[in-house]
Amino acid sequence: MAEAFSSVPAVDYSRLNDPNLKSNELSKLKEAIFGVGFLYLTHTGLENLLHRTHESLQEIFDLPANLKEECNMIKSPSFLGYTQLGAETTASRTDLREQFDFGTPGVNEWNQSDPIWQRLEGPNQVFLIEIQHIITLPANVVKYPKNLGIQSIVEDYIVQINELAQNFVHLVAESLSLPPSTFDGFKGNMSRLKFVKYPPAAADSQGVGPHKDSSGLFTFLSQDNTGGLQVLNKNGDWIDVPPVEGSLVINIQQGFEAITGGTCAATTHRVIAPTTKTRYSIPFFLGVRLDLTLSQLKESAAHIVRQIPISDDRKKRAIDVPSEFLSPLYSCFGEAHLRNRILSHPDVGQRWYPELYYKYSRQTLQ
Ligand SMILES: O=C(O)CCC(=O)C(=O)O
Ligand SMILES: [Fe+2]
């Protein structure tokens, strides 16, 4: 459980990479990882990329509804593609957001002999939009195809943020006094990137409801200047995560929580929908190995937890942290993640995994 923090700390990435300043900054990183589970990462060198990508979001979401529907997530057993406003559910309530989900390109296609959860990794759908978008100019009623270049925007973003994410995981290991490569063997084949739009809504509406991120190790979020993101502390207070220009907001996901035996806890967060302007955000979810079983995990977690320099008392308490990934109900991370996707996107779940949908939706009702 995250401690009773009252703000989200900032860590300077350029200092983490400066031999003279590194050790001081690693201590800040360690405190943020243990105490909050959320941090701002500043001076990443990705400021231009974030700015450029945010600039293209409005045009992408302003595409005609029928074009966005061409790549509706319902067509993807990997839960990749477009989700219209109101089609997503968190904490049993409807989220007021519209989004595109993308995955790291180039993963192997699923086939019948693979486990069912392996199907979470698959190809993107976005290409359809590229070739079909037609712009009509009202003045002279000329029609011409316009390529927004979504595919290259997405792939460029994934390459650059992924490089930072890999480095960040090494730095986290170092901050916990572990060898930098400690977590390398836990990385998944596919990470996920989302473009998200929260339109203005009535005061206190749910942009996205309270949740812990469940698809991987860490989330790297770029939010615009609107605000609305909040994280929950131990006292049950919602703490604002106001926009900090050019920064990334990084949080621990349930995969990393499970790998560290709960010593590094995933923190619950939510977004309150904006009331007067549209909010855009770009979360990148660094993927975790889907095939990791609970027993493998317990073994590696015990090994890692033993080496993490915190008090035995805190370690003991940490083992009790509840996590979907540590539930004996699921055979491996892949199964836990598939359940999460099915419940978040029930229409997609029902279409591609009808039996699992039936099973999991009954489990939550109990
Ligand atoms: O849009 C945001 O700021 C956060 C989104 C989020 O928490 C999520 O999609 O998991
Ligand atoms: Fe989240």
TrEMBL record:
Keywords: Iron, Metal-binding, Oxidoreductase. InterPro entries: DIOX_N, IPNS-like_FE2OG_OXY, IPNS-like_sf, Iron_ascorbate_oxido_reductase, Oxoglu/Fe-dep_dioxygenase_dom. The keyword Coiled coil does not apply. Pfam families: 2OG-FeII_Oxy, DIOX_N. The keyword Glycoprotein does not apply. It comes from the Eukaryota. One of its GO terms (biological process) is small molecule biosynthetic process. PANTHER family: 2-OXOGLUTARATE (2OG) AND FE(II)-DEPENDENT OXYGENASE SUPERFAMILY PROTEIN-RELATED (PTHR47990). This is Fe2OG dioxygenase domain-containing protein. It comes from Penicillium angulare.
